[in-house]
Amino acid sequence: MDMRIIRNKHTPPRRKSKQIQIGGVKIGGGAPIVVQSMTNTFTHDIMSTVRQIKELEEYDCEIIRVAVPDMESARAIRGIKKQISIPLIADIHFDYRLALAALESGADGLRLNPGNIGEPEKIKKVVLAAKERSVPIRIGVNAGSLPKTSVKKSIPERMVAAAMEQVELLESLDFDLIKVSLKAFDVPTTIAAYKAIADKIPYPLHIGITEAGTPRTGVIRSSVGIGTLLYLGIGDTIRVSLTAHPREEVIAGWEILKSLDLRQHGPVLVSCPTCGRAEVDIIKLAQQVEAELAKVKKPIRVAVMGCAVNGPGEAKDADIGVACGKGRAILFKKGKQVGVIAEKDILRVLMGEVKKL
Ligand code: SF4
Questions:
Q1: How far is the CA of 255 from the centre of ligand 1 (A)?
Q2: How far is the CA of 272 from the centre of ligand 1 (A)?
Q3: What is the total count of domains within the chain?
Q4: Which of the listed residues 309, 322, 324 should we mutate to test ligand 1's pocket, taking the one with most ligand atoms within 8 A of CB?
């Protein structure tokens, strides 16, 4: 799969951040924005977890995070790592000893929630062990589990303050392999928090909208939140959180990056919304083409348009496309007609042309 960075001249410049490396994957410092996800298997069930990660690798998930709720899960990381190709991050809540065990098992990164790890002494132990192994730590602040404060502050301010406290603790231990996230369910709150911290620290930012929901609403919520931040130049790695199989998160993540022309990833389908001029079932045809394109790796633009009057012109950037009419379709390349296809052959001929590109 071609997954280069692309630049659209209308996209604002990205925030400059310090580069860190999770396993072999670079984050920040101008590196491509990385797509990550999280498994939803029991981490101690090595076979199921590896199976799920391998499936996510096929969808080009670039980093995977696993929950580490107990020692058995922390120890399972060693067995999982042997069988997967992408870096693995251990997600730790409450018990710092799990972080130490995950590092021992070869985790490439840690995610800690400062709101629930507890005393600085415990965090210090984890930081020293991570430093020994050059393993980065993500300070993952969630709006739902903020440490209590005596001073009255807004939620974004409290999120930033919680992250800054931990950043300063890590820096005081001479540790700078830091990544930060400030997630909330509420999109404006999340954007405000990230905007506020972006100027305060040099570290890369992991962005996402937490507990975004099921695919139908969660993808929209995440796209608005992550998309807005990325458009502002903020964000070095993304995770779309969905109540769904994690493959949906990876697919959505790539689509967000493609929409903003930040990365290239396989084909883009251009299809018209159809209107009273369409004389072919464009909804069905577009769905069939989309399913076929899922097997194509080339970064091409393919159009399915409902009429020959406006279709070729509206989709003139497409590498290949069809503009359908009564009983037949015009085949066009970059807006220019190159052939005519009988209605029953549209899908077959179009996909044949896609293969030739
Ligand atoms: S391409 Fe034709 S059918 Fe499709 S929306 Fe435009 S005018 Fe209507």
A1: 24
A2: 6
A3: 2
A4: 309
Its pTM stands at 0.92
User: Around 176, how many Cα atoms within 13 Å sit in the side-chain half-sphere?
Assistant: 7
Residue with tokens 């984890």: 126
Final residue of a structural domain among 209, 233, 259: 259
**Would 9 be classed as within a structural domain?**
no
Q: Is the shortest distance between the CB of 204 and ligand 1 below 6 Å? A: no
CATH of residue 347's domain is 3.30.413.10
Tokens of 107: 């985790």
Reduced to 3 states (helix: H, G, I; strand: E, B; else coil), residue 236 is coil
CATH of the domain at 74: 3.20.20.20
Distance 317 CA to ligand 1 centre (A): 16
> Does the Cβ of 305 fall within 6 Å of ligand 1?
yes
Q: Whose CA is nearest to atom 2 of ligand 1?
A: 307
Q: How far is CA 144 from CA 96, 115, 158, 272, 329, in A?
A: 20, 9, 11, 41, 54
What's the pLDDT tens digit per position in 241-292?
999 999 999 999 999 999 999 999 999 999 999 999 999 999 999 999 999 9
- Verify that 214 and 338 share a domain, yes or no: no
Atom from ligand 1 closest to the CA of residue 277: 3
Q: Specify whether 272 is located in the same domain as 254.
A: no
Residue 294 lies in a domain: yes
Instruction: Pick the residue whose CA is nearest to atom 5 on ligand 1.
Output: 274
273 shares its domain with 239: no
Check pocket membership of 17 for ligand 1, CB cut-off 6 A.
no
The CA dihedral of 159, 165, 166, 169, to the nearest 10 degrees, is 170
